[in-house]
Amino acid sequence: MRSALAGLTEFALTALVIAVVILAVLVPVALSQPDPAQVLGLFLLGPFGTMRHLGNVLELATPTMLTGLAATLIFRAGSFNLGVEGSFFLGGIAATAAALFLPLTGMIAAPIAILVGALVGSFACSVPGYLKVRFGASEMVNSLVLNFAFLYAGIFILNYYLRDPNAGALMSYRLPGDFTLERLMAGTRLHTGVIVAFAACIIGGIWLYGTRGGLNLRIVGAGPGFAQHLGLNSGALVMRAQIIGGLVAGMAGAIEVLGLYNRFSWTALPGHGWTGITIAILARENPFLVIPAALFLAYLQVGGDMLARNLAVPSEVVGLVTAAIMLVVTATAIFRHPAFLRLIRDIKGQEQAL
After folding, report:
1. Is residue 130 over pLDDT 90?
2. Which of 54, 167, 296, 349 is such that its CA lies 20 to 30 A from the CA of 62?
3. CA 62 to CA 275: how far, in whole Å?
4. What does pTM read for this prediction?
C-alpha cells in the first residue's frame, strides 16, 4: 500500500499540469466567442450542473475504467500489449452471441453472458502475450495487427450468424430483456455496470499492492533480471497478467453492450480500449488512480459535448484539449516505461544485426 500512496504526489503534479494545459487551450477558444465566461463556465462546471450530466460522466467512464484497469495490469508486468481494444470488441460480440443462443432467463442470464464475453475477450491479449513469452515476438506489433484481425473475424460472425435480416443494417437480433443491465438513474443510461467498474478497480489495486501475487507481478515488470535472480517464473507471471487483463477488457465490452444497447452493431473498433491505455498512463499504472483518471476524461467529453450543443463551439475542441493533455502529460510516462525501453533496445539490436 505504501507503493500505491507514493504515486499520489506524482498524480497531483499531473493534475496541476493538466489544469494548465486545459486553460492554455480553452481560453483562446473562449475569447473567440461573444461571452468567454459562459464558454469557460459551461465547459468546466456544466458536467456538474445536474444529476443527468453527472450520470452521463459516470456512464462514459464505466467502460474506460475497466479497460484502464486491464491496461494497467498488463503494463505492470512490463508488457506493452495493445490488445485491450481487441479484447473489448470480442467481449461485446461474445456476450451478444451468448444472449442470443444460450437458453437462460432470470438473474443469472446477464452474469453468464458477461462471463462468456470475458473469457472470449481474453484471447486478444493472451495470443500476443504467448508469442512474446514463447518466441520473443514484439507484443506491441502483434497485438496492434491482431486487433484488426479480431475485428474482421467479429464482423464475419455478426454478418453470417448474428445478423437480423429485417434490421435494415448490419446489426444483430434484439437482445432478450433478461440479458440487459438495469438502469440506476432516471433520465440517463447509467447502468449497474458502473458498480462493477468501481469494484474491479478497487479489487485490482488491493491485489496489486496488497498480495504476494501482485508484488511478484510488479517485480517482473520493473526488473526482469532481478525477478529471475529471485527465482520467479517471469513467463508465467507475464502470461497471467495478459490473461487477467484480457478478461477484464472482455468483461468491459460485454458490460458495454448489455448495458447500453439492444442490438450489437459495432462494425469498427469502438475505441474504449485505446482510451483505457491512455487512462492507464494518466493513472501512472495505479488501479486506484484509474478511477479518477477515467472520470476526468469522461468529464472532458461531457463538457465538450455541452459546448457543441449549447454554443457555437465545435465539438472537436474537447478532442484538442484531450490531445494536448496526452501530448504534454503522457510523453514522459511512455518513454520511461520498462516495456517501451526494452522494445527500443530490441529494435536497435535488430538494426545492428542487419
Report:
1. yes
2. 167
3. 12
4. 0.88
